[in-house]
Structure to design on (67 residues):
């Protein structure tokens, strides 16, 4: 079974943000504006994204399979 992934894009700068937000961006592998990363869709990654929604956006979410 293939692992689910999501694509995340950085939409705002980490300048003048608390250090924890900058570290969260680094943890997601983002460091410059408009960079994207394809990440495994896990609760930990979702939590990181939800903690900085003003800095990132989810570009691609896989659709659920219809059975």
């Amino acid at each position: 079974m293939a692992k689910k992934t999501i694509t995340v894009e950085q939409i705002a700068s980490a300048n003048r943000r608390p250090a924890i937000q900058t570290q969260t961006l680094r943890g997601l592998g983002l460091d410059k504006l408009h960079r994207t990363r394809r990440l495994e869709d896990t609760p930990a990654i979702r939590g990181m994204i939800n903690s900085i929604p003003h800095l990132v956006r989810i570009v691609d979410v896989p659709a659920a399979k219809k059975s």
